[in-house]
């Protein structure tokens, strides 16, 4: 919860807070997402994953807003003595596959 709170408190353009966080607790879901990525195979073995979903209509700096929320969560994980790594998917070949797996609307 501390890691999610760190993401929630991240600054955003105009305080738009255009993000949602999806907790990937199910091992099969993490494996499916890992399999759909190019360099995210380690996600399958992680204890949990967090998908950071940003609504591009909610902010004129949605990529930056999502990145800083992610960075806040990575720093919180480090402070807690946990290993963490981001996997970027925006604009990638596998973005649509992951959106479908996690039931994320295509426009987000």
Give a written overview of the molecule.
With 108 residues, this protein is of the alpha+beta class. The protein has a single domain (2-98), classed as NADH Oxidase. It has four helices and two strands. The chain has helices at residues 2-8, 27-36, 62-79, 95-102; strands at residues 19-24, 49-54. The chain has a two-stranded antiparallel sheet. It is globular. The mean pLDDT is 93.
What structural keywords apply?
alpha+beta, NADH Oxidase, two-stranded antiparallel ribbon, 2 strands, globular
Low-confidence stretches: none
Assembly status: single chain
Number of strands: 2
Main sheet strand line-up: 1-2
**SSE sequence, one letter per element:** HEHEHH
CATH architecture: 3-Layer(aba) Sandwich
Distance between the termini: 24 Å
Number of helices: 4
Q: Largest sheet at a glance? A: 2 strands, antiparallel
Gyration radius from CA atoms, angstroms: 13 Å
Gross geometry: globular
| CATH class assignment | Alpha Beta
